[in-house]
Design goal:
Blueprint (H helix, E strand, L loop, with lengths): L1 E4 L4 E5 L7 E6 L5 E6 L3 E6 L4 E7 L5 E6 L5 E6 L4 E5 L4 E6 L7 E6 L5 E6 L5 E5 L5 E4 L5
Antiparallel strand pairs: 1-2, 3-4, 4-5, 5-6, 7-8, 8-9, 9-10, 11-12, 12-13, 13-14
């Protein structure tokens, strides 16, 4: 993973640690951390200033396709080819929730709502996406198929 300094686009650092391809990266809301999702089935969290790994989020059983920070910056969601979205407490590295119900398909992406109460995921299953609302536990809603 290469971290670039924007304007004039100089290579700033190389972040090493994943054991496979990196498919996605996401800045924390405060821009102090970077999360990376990989074929090695992990999400890694990096301190941008020190360029060191500060957390390794493990639990998926297949490639992690995407990751996304919650607006508050304390949670990270990861979407995986194992058919789950997992929500992590980044400060402790613990799994907060395992969201299933994607009908056996790989989950390619996830995104938080601006208020942090909703989480959307998209899957490989035709016309299936899920919206999770933060209740206890997370409640899933399937979005309607397009006409």
């Amino acid at each position: 993973m290469i971290l670039w300094d924007a304007f004039p686009w100089n290579e700033g650092a190389t972040l090493k640690g994943h054991g496979g391809e990196v498919f996605s990266c996401a800045w924390s809301p405060d821009a102090k951390r970077l999360a990376t999702a990989s074929a090695d089935k992990t999400v890694r969290v990096w301190d941008v200033n020190t360029r060191r790994e500060v957390a390794k989020l493990e639990g998926h059983h297949d490639v992690v396709e995407s990751c996304a920070w919650s607006p508050g910056g304390t949670l990270n969601a990861s979407a995986s080819a194992d058919g789950t979205v997992r929500v992590w407490d980044v400060n402790t590295g613990s799994e907060v929730a395992k969201l299933e119900g994607h009908d056996g398909g790989a989950v390619y992406s996830c995104a938080w709502s601006p208020d942090g109460r909703g989480l959307h995921s998209s899957t490989s299953q035709l016309n299936l996406s899920r919206v999770y609302h933060k209740k206890t536990p997370y409640t899933a809603y399937t979005t309607p198929s397009p006409p």
